[in-house]
Amino acid sequence: DSGVTQTPKHLITATGQRVTLRCSPRSGDLSVYWYQQSLDQGLQFLIQYYNGEERAKGNILERFSAQQFPDLHSELNLSSLELGDSALYFCASSGVAGGGQNIQYFGAGTRLSVL
Amino acid sequence: DQQVKQNSPSLSVQEGRISILNCDYTNSMFDYFLWYKKYPAEGPTFLISISSIKDKNEDGRFTVFLNKSAKHLSLHIVPSQPGDSAVYFCAASAGRGSTLGRLYFGRGTQLTVWP
After folding, report:
1. Closest Cα to residue B48, out of B74, B81, B80, B82?
2. Nearest to B100 among A35, A44, A104 (CB)
3. Which positions 2-61 of A are in contact with B (Cβ < 8 Å)?
4. Per-residue pLDDT tens over the stretch A65-84
């Protein structure tokens, strides 16, 4: 168990709809990252928040937005959904591993299916 | 633009033998590299990392080698075990400070270890 919690695990919706994915980072971690993994692709970085502020942005579509709340949980909002948005969405938080390495811990992901 | 490349989508190895997974990168600003393992329906799990100031890092059965001049790294697993069967992702980061920045991922290599 990484300590990063993502809900829901699965989401099935229709084109044109809007959904919200939720992430709770590990206790004490201030940074949250969102990644998208489409079929047979590596994880593509979407956006990073640090202590409530946007820190970095990747190839995130304008239809997508995110925020991090005072309790450090984060939400990724996807609107006007298209078939191509079907993917696994991962959230990660960063911390120090047992060996002292600075790493990202990943949640189990939310599988989004747009029909 | 794929800045981290894993050119072998799959690798099959007999139990007890060595598994070698390769990764190439193009961005000379990358200074920290990580390997993650991913089982189906789970998030990526951190395996091992290496800083650009080193050329080798070892942790039990796992060793990562970094060749900066060739912009190449490899993960060696010896001896390989059936439980190692998973998708392995290579990831890289640039300008690592106290907070880990975004990770750039390869597309992954599916390792199958057969008895």
Report:
1. B74
2. A104
3. 2, 4, 6, 30-31, 33, 35, 40-45, 48, 50, 55-56, 58
4. 999 999 999 999 999 999 99
